[in-house]
TrEMBL record:
<dbReference type="InterPro" id="IPR002401">
    <property type="entry name" value="Cyt_P450_E_grp-I"/>
</dbReference>
<comment type="similarity">
    <text>Belongs to the cytochrome P450 family.</text>
</comment>
<dbReference type="GO" id="GO:0020037">
    <property type="term" value="F:heme binding"/>
</dbReference>
<dbReference type="Pfam" id="PF00067">
    <property type="entry name" value="p450"/>
</dbReference>
<dbReference type="GO" id="GO:0004497">
    <property type="term" value="F:monooxygenase activity"/>
</dbReference>
<dbReference type="InterPro" id="IPR036396">
    <property type="entry name" value="Cyt_P450_sf"/>
</dbReference>
<dbReference type="InterPro" id="IPR050121">
    <property type="entry name" value="Cytochrome_P450_monoxygenase"/>
</dbReference>
<keyword id="KW-0349">Heme</keyword>
<dbReference type="InterPro" id="IPR001128">
    <property type="entry name" value="Cyt_P450"/>
</dbReference>
<protein>
    <recommendedName>
        <fullName>Cytochrome P450</fullName>
    </recommendedName>
</protein>
<keyword id="KW-0479">Metal-binding</keyword>
<feature type="binding site" description="axial binding residue">
    <location>
        <position position="504"/>
    </location>
    <ligand>
        <name>heme</name>
    </ligand>
</feature>
<keyword id="KW-0408">Iron</keyword>
<dbReference type="GO" id="GO:0016705">
    <property type="term" value="F:oxidoreductase activity, acting on paired donors, with incorporation or reduction of molecular oxygen"/>
</dbReference>
<dbReference type="GO" id="GO:0005506">
    <property type="term" value="F:iron ion binding"/>
</dbReference>
Length: 575
């Protein structure tokens, strides 16, 4: 029996190996026709078997002689975070990665990257790999072509200046309440985890500015509403923090709960609760709109989204059962899908950017001084006592906060949530100019815009491209009285919100939220590391930088050990 088992196993392994060799050979032939340098990876990066095996055997494979194990470094989703510009420095502005799965054309050239993003009809989304994000309904990210245009027409307008004013007010209020907690006599609360605090803040801003449910910062107010097992924010938080697990659970919804691990059951409950809450909120908002109640004071994203969709439906005179190809409005499922997208895109990404920025400002006091100088110049030192209703309104303040935005941009340059933007050639070949060379990319080929490379190319960002230096975004004019302005060194060299027609509609939302939080936190206070035993302040700052650099790619780029960053807030002495 043992011999038969061994023979069967060896036969299956041999068949699997030969099949993978065939697939790699086939893809290699395709890659050679493109004419770019080729890197070979013997395993498909999304293979479940390899995803489980890589952390275990990867370190040993990397030690193989003659760089035979080099492929481990680019054999997983998110590898661009590890390498940034290094592979392009070695192999050129673009190269291909060949695996048993498919051919990936990796683009690190800024001009070519911009071309891919602007030519949205040529370089499309591979909807097959986006299907999992339809768990609440089709949305802007999971659609393409005319369907995407319809989603864009309705989902982009809610991100307007009136909503920006609401985001500013809500973000300022949340920041000042967080600061009160951080500076309270309760040392446990005062030295809390940066990541935990910024995630709570980002969720609360979304609750108020996106769903019209303003809440105090303190989490004790998060109680389940009638008929629910979780609060809305807790349910959203669990789903977005476990997005991959949520996709798996949703795709396997027919599996009985009794055979699921406990951690999966909690996520499954959160998915159900999130959909129930969103459905109830949409129904309530539709009722408000149906009664003809003015929406002038209701500038949250949900109210504007439903208003625009309802107006499009009434203008077209079609009902809910109309084919999607003929609709100019969004169905209930599509509204739910886009509302959930607001949470996925606007929660973790902004929270992580805030976490990284606060940690880096604590590590680099000169950069913190530079930013505080602007905040106090615009708001006036000590005049507002961090009261949210006394900090100047959005229209008077946000346009003048260039240094705060520079901090955000520099953090996103090095720690963008996504290090690559995936596109696909679809059913047609596409030509692409890469430097002075033009290549023809075959149909059904993945094209990756390598943000990790374009954001750290020394020829664009300088020899200190890997260093965090926000002032690089404010060109020196030599005149201290001249207004500062924000500028990238090269057009189209910065893609954290993507670029071109498919640029993220929440770009302004996230910028306003970030600047408002910086204003609320740093107007009258500085942030400093909490020292460990026998640690100097310089040692603590170096430790903060080390923790920030020790990041990895999960759903987004995240610090491995954010719990190691404890901060304290020190009042700024009045001059």
């Amino acid at each position: 029996m043992a011999v038969m088992f061994a023979i069967t196993f060896l036969c299956l392994f041999a068949a699997w190996t030969l099949w993978n060799i065939y697939l790699i050979s086939k893809n290699y032939v395709t890659a050679r026709k493109i004419g770019l340098p080729i890197l070979v990876c013997p395993f498909d990066s999304v293979s479940p078997l390899w995803m489980l095996a890589r952390p275990v055997i990867g370190p040993a494979l990397r030690r193989l002689p003659f760089e035979l194990g080099e492929f481990v470094g680019y054999s997983y989703v998110g590898w661009a975070w590890e390498h940034r510009y290094k592979l392009h420095a070695r192999y050129g502005p673009a190269f291909t990665i060949v695996s048993p799965g498919e051919v990936h054309v990796v683009v690190g050239d800024v001009g070519a990257a911009a071309s891919v993003l602007y030519r949205w009809k040529d370089f499309v989304k591979n909807l097959a790999i986006m299907e999992g994000f339809n768990m609440f309904g089709p949305n802007l990210v999971t659609s393409d072509g005319e369907t995407w245009q319809r989603h864009r027409r309705i989902t982009a307008p809610p991100f307007n200046e009136r909503n920006s004013a609401l985001v500013w007010a809500e973000s300022t209020r949340q920041a000042t309440e967080l600061l009160k907690l951080w500076t309270s006599p309760d040392t446990i609360a005062a030295m809390g985890n940066i990541k935990s605090a910024t995630h709570t803040l980002a969720l609360n801003v979304l609750s108020g500015a996106a769903f019209g449910k303003p809440l105090p910062f303190d989490s004790e107010y998060r109680k389940p509403e009638h008929g629910h097992r979780m609060s809305f924010l807790d349910a959203i938080h669990i789903v977005t923090d476990n997005i991959i697990k949520s996709i798996v659970i949703d795709s396997a919804r027919k599996i009985p709960a009794c055979v699921m691990p406990k951690s999966f059951l909690r996520v499954k409950t959160a998915i159900r609760e999130t959909k129930s809450y969103l459905t109830e909120m949409v129904a309530a908002e539709r009722q408000v709109y149906g009664k003809g109640i003015s929406s002038d004071g209701r500038q949250n994203l949900m109210s504007n989204l439903i208003k625009l969709s309802e107006q499009a439906r009434l203008n077209q005179g079609q009902d809910e059962k109309s084919p999607s190809s003929k609709r100019s409005w969004l169905s209930d499922d599509e509204i739910l899908g886009n509302l959930f997208l607001y949470n996925v895109a606007g929660h973790e990404t902004t929270a992580n950017t805030l976490s990284y920025s606060i940690a880096l400002l604590a590590a680099y006091p000169d950069m913190q001084d530079w930013m505080i100088e602007e905040i106090q110049s615009v708001l006036g030192s000590g005049k507002h006592e961090n009261a949210p209703d006394s900090i100047p309104v959005y229209e008077d303040t946000f346009p003048r906060m260039k240094r705060c935005l520079a901090v955000m941009h520099e953090t996103l340059r090095l720690h963008a949530p996504l290090q690559g933007i995936p596109r696909w050639t679809g059913n047609s070949s596409q030509s692409l100019n890469i430097g002075e060379k033009t290549v023809l990319i075959p149909p059904k080929t993945a094209v990756i815009v390598n943000i990790g490379a374009t954001h750290t190319n020394p020829s664009i960002w300088g020899d200190d491209a890997d260093s965090w230096r926000p002032p690089r975004w404010i060109p020196s004019t030599g005149d201290s009285d001249k207004e500062e302005f924000l500028s990238a060194p090269t057009k189209d060299a910065f893609f954290p919100w993507a670029s071109g027609p498919r640029v993220c509609p929440g770009l302004k939302f996230s910028q306003v939220e970030f600047v408002a939080v910086m204003a609320g936190l740093f107007l009258n206070h500085r942030v400093e590391p909490v020292l460990k035993a026998d640690e100097t302040i310089d040692d603590a700052r170096r430790r903060f930088v080390s923790v920030v650099q020790d990041s990895h790619m999960l759903t987004t780029v995240q610090m491995r050990h954010p719990e190691r960053l404890k901060v304290k807030w020190v009042p700024i002495e009045k001059k």
